[in-house]
Amino acid sequence: MSVKIKNTTVCFHCGEDCLDEAILFDNKHFCCSGCKTVFEILNQNNLCDYYDIEKMPGISPPKNAIKKYEYLDNEQIFEKLIDFKDEEQALVTLFLPQIHCSSCIWLLENLYKLNPHIVSSRVNFLKKEIKIAFNYSDLSLRKLVELLTSIGYEPEITFSNVSNNKKHSIDRSLIFKLGIAGFCFGNIMLISLPDYFGLDNLKDNDFSQFFGYINILLSLPVLLYSASDYLKSAWQAMFRKSINIDVPIALGIIALFARSVYEIISNTGSGYLDSLAGLIFFMLLGKIFQQKTYAILSFERDYKSYFPISTTLIDADGNEKSVSVSEVKVGDIILIRNNEIIPVDALLVEGCAQIDNSFVTGESVAVHKNVGEKIYAGGKQMGQAIQLEVIKELSQSYLTQLWNDEAFIKQQHHQFEGITNAMSKYFTIVILIIAFSSAFFWWQTSIKIAIHAFTSVLIIACPCALALSAPFTFGNVLRVLGKNKFYLKNASVIENLTKISTIVFDKTGTITQASKSTITFHGDMLLKEQIDMIYTLLRQSSHPLSKLIFSSIKDAELLTLIAFKEVPGKGIEGSFNHHKVAVGSELFIKEKQDLNPTSTTVFIKIDDKVLGYFQLENSYRNNLKEVLKQLSKKFKLHLISGDNDSEKKNLMTYFGSNAQFSFNQRPEDKLNYIKKLQNNNEKVAMIGDGLNDAGALKQSNVGVSISENINTFSPACDAILDASAFDKIPLFLKYCKGSMRIIEVSFIISFLYNIVGLSFAVQGLLSPVVAAILMPLSSITVVVFVTLATNILYRKKINK
């Protein structure tokens, strides 16, 4: 039972003041029935640990917001909002602007306890997004959104969600606060002009005090509205018996305001309200600059760094050509081969689809799809080639999201995050001690200097510049590498690349260049029907050798394939009306090896007769010998391949005698090979084609997938390298190592800034408004430095 009592306590749930009537329930006070209801929901589901992580972490739920979500029952809107759907589950990503602390993350990732039809939920704290998997037949999207709203996390659903055209914009409330602060700052300065020119003695006392009161009135909206974020953050931190970086800033603001009001009312001075308004104006300006810079980096990351993923487009004449997935339009027909990932939402128009959605849902059991059914981006075809009609253009942000899924992120400690977190822990306490010590020292000499010293120390000493060093350096490095066709999953990959001691290469499709290979057939004369069967079978596979031989066969026709099977690393099999065809290695076809070839061979068997083999004279990538020579100076080199060792002697001339070679390796053998190296304390980078190397790419410390006109995108890799940039691998590694030194230098710059700034501030030589200008200026300095430094390093290391 709950009762209403007159009280001025704070709400147990959200921490807001209970201004009018506090609702008492379970010996706890709540500011409104909404907060009480949320507490009841959490209490009934044993989720009150939410309040143990952070004190009063909740948000008061919006009033009457639940009723407005009826439109989510519309099937068309539902289809446009969700990322993925199968027979049981749907996946949706929602923007929750209310996310603000670790308790929010904990609660939102325990939603399944509130409703059993929620399968999982994962929060992206930086983007304030949540990805939820739920059983849509039992829990509608509308009910899901209403549940989030009822506990205080109302999703922001706009047309941009439906159109997949999200834009990163600055928080509009910051713009309004900056405008108010700027207006008041200008007018307070205008009224204070006589003081600036030493004309205050000529003013009438009553007239002077009257304008002093006007300045107080002008400063109130600055204090109560423009500075509200700083004051609220500091109050919540103090109430929770903790200290954050906003505490010294809030103390400085309050000290300036209180002293100014005292001087004006007591007629002992004109106060520092111009400094107060200017201080808040410039701090807000710095915050907007920081937010805008982050938004630019995020925008480029999500929308401009198009991965070099290609797919096969079938034109109106039936011709097949490889195009970038970013060029695919609604209505186009695309061909998806075995083991290729579907890049866009589409309808099945031809073939038998067996879709593995493990990259999306974690469920590896293949789902059968019939012609006319919808297939979502992210699924992988397991079987013969299928044709799809595109119904939604590429959503680069969705592929980025899939690539950055937690299941594929390697959990490692990052040294620069540790430095920043450790510094932030003690920084504020040290600054408060210095500020109070400065005020105490100057108080007997001059109250004005004491106030200047106190507030200037609190304002100018800011860890923002230090905190920005690593993310802005890494952000610019990601942008530069992406511009040069080397796409990294996230910033941690940069740091991992600098620790690599061993590089393992795959052979086919990685160090070989398919477009320049020569193919000859040795064996019986093939009949037209046999050529057509081989041609049809090869079309189903995404393996580089299959695609190479397929493209070399001319004037063949596609036949009806009854069954198809691919054995990774060995070969492919298929059944036609009266024949069985197999294409693959000699061991796969003949179960023994008689030939001792000096180049790659692919054997053909129809029914029980071996008809011959294709011999491929591989062409290695441009500058391969020079690339390997540079890498061998700093790294141990290995080659692992599913092919036979026919080219070992030739490869030794490229890799050198110290390199290690392993042939006839299955995908699981490659994975175990990487594990063995890591057990010997090696930090391994695996460079493969992304097809049969997924396990090895994921196991390695850094997995790099080479892309050359094939759909090799895989969430298992940490980076995608366009084949045309292969010869720049040594330069990319040097560039990453240099970027770490840039971060170290930017740390030193940030420390020097704080030391020099504090040395002036403790002497009372800086006014608060000057300190407010210098504070964001330090952040700007660091951002400009790391941007220029990484660009100069790029010109020295890559763009020579």
Task: Describe what you observe in this structure.
The chain is α+β, with helices and mostly antiparallel strands. The chain has six domains: 52 residues, no CATH class; 98 residues, 2-Layer Sandwich (Alpha-Beta Plaits), CATH 3.30.70.100; 136 residues; 94 residues, Calcium-transporting ATPase, cytoplasmic transduction domain A, CATH 2.70.150; 146 residues, Rossmann fold, CATH 3.40.50; 100 residues, Calcium-transporting ATPase, cytoplasmic domain N (3-Layer(aba) Sandwich). The chain has 27 helices and 29 strands. The strands form six sheets. It has a seven-stranded mixed sheet with strand order 17-29-28-27-18-25-26, with helices on both faces. Strands 9-8-10-16-11-14 form a six-stranded antiparallel sheet, with no helix packed on it. The N terminus is likely disordered.
Mean pLDDT: 80
Q: Indicate the structural class.
A: alpha+beta
Alpha carbon gap, first and last residue: 75 Å
Please give the CATH architecture of the largest domain. Answer: 3-Layer(aba) Sandwich
Helix percent band: 40-55%
Provide the gyration radius in Å: 33 Å
The 3D shape can be described as: elongated
CATH class division of the largest domain = Alpha Beta
Tally of contiguous helical segments:
27
Task: Give the uncertain stretches in residue-range form.
Answer: 1-6, 160-168
Beta content comes to 15-25%
Task: Let me know the CATH homologous superfamily of the largest domain.
Answer: HAD superfamily/HAD-like
What is the third-level CATH name, the topology of the largest domain? Rossmann fold
